[in-house]
Amino acid sequence: MTDAPQDTATEKAAPTRPSKKGRIIAVVILLAFAAGLIWYVDEGHEIFWPKRWGVVQEGAIYRSGEPTPNATRRVVRSMGIKTIIDLGAHTQGSDEERTAQAVAEELGVTRYRFTLIGDATGDPNDYVMALRIMNDPAHQPVWVHCAAGSERTGCLIALQRTINDGWDVDRAYNETHVYDHDDNPYLRPMLETWLPQIRSAYTEGGTIPYDQATDGLGGAGNMETNGDRSGPFDKLEFLASETTQEPPLLDDASGPDAEPGSGG
């Protein structure tokens, strides 16, 4: 007599369910991944590439906010940067300033540092000198940055647009909003107040008479520190004929509607 077949259901092992501990670990991993993704999108990517990156003139002039040392290395190597113009991202003598200079030296890049005030006010001669450096082919490709990349850098690029690119002030100022200029009330007054003298000093040579005690505009008017420079300024030899440029025909291929990082 043969045995009756056993119920096949009893032969199959019951499916194993994840333990409570395993489920908790999985949830923690997912939460950590989500937090890391949010951090990277929000600000973590700035470790690898600087915030508010933009192309002012392809192959010649670039702009951004304050870079990390790693971002500096990536930009310099990928763009072939020869010169960095820092409009005042760090306090003179700080660890951050010493690191920025050390990284530039490590990469063989010439670095010029100005101390314009965060609201874009300060000695207009700093803007004149920065314009001369960034438009000198011997220094290009040039990378310009400040801390945020919106105010001091925004003012300098607006000056570049009006003096060398043939833009009117409205168009140049509108581009600053693309790079997050918003509620600083001093950028446009700085631009409009000093534009004629900056244009004259840049194209004809010389310096602008300036006394911070009588400035009265923004942080400069409040006597915040500005005007200090560091870098090989003594090696610069500019002639008015070398810095004068004829404004080109307006080209709508680049303008305030362009996204940061686009051409123009």
Plain-language structure description:
- The chain has 10 helices and 5 strands; from the N terminus they run ααββαβαβαβααααα.
- With 264 residues, the protein is an alpha/beta fold.
- Strand 3, helix 4 and strand 4 form a beta-alpha-beta unit.
- The protein is elongated and about 85 Å long.
- The protein starts with 7 loop residues before the first helix and ends in a 21-residue tail after the last helix.
Provide keyphrases for this structure:
single chain; 264 residues; alpha/beta; Protein-Tyrosine Phosphatase, Chain A; 5-stranded mixed beta sheet; 5 strands; 42% helix; 8% strand; disordered C terminus
Rg, alpha carbons? 27 Å
Strands of the biggest beta sheet: in what spatial order?
Answer: 1-2-5-3-4
The number of domains: 1
Number of helices: 10
User: How much of the sequence is in beta strands?
Assistant: 5-15%
Biggest sheet architecture: 5 strands, mixed
Report the top-level CATH class: Alpha Beta
Sum up the overall morphology in one term.
elongated
Intertermini distance: 93 Å
CATH level-four homologous superfamily name: Protein tyrosine phosphatase superfamily
Overall pLDDT score: 83
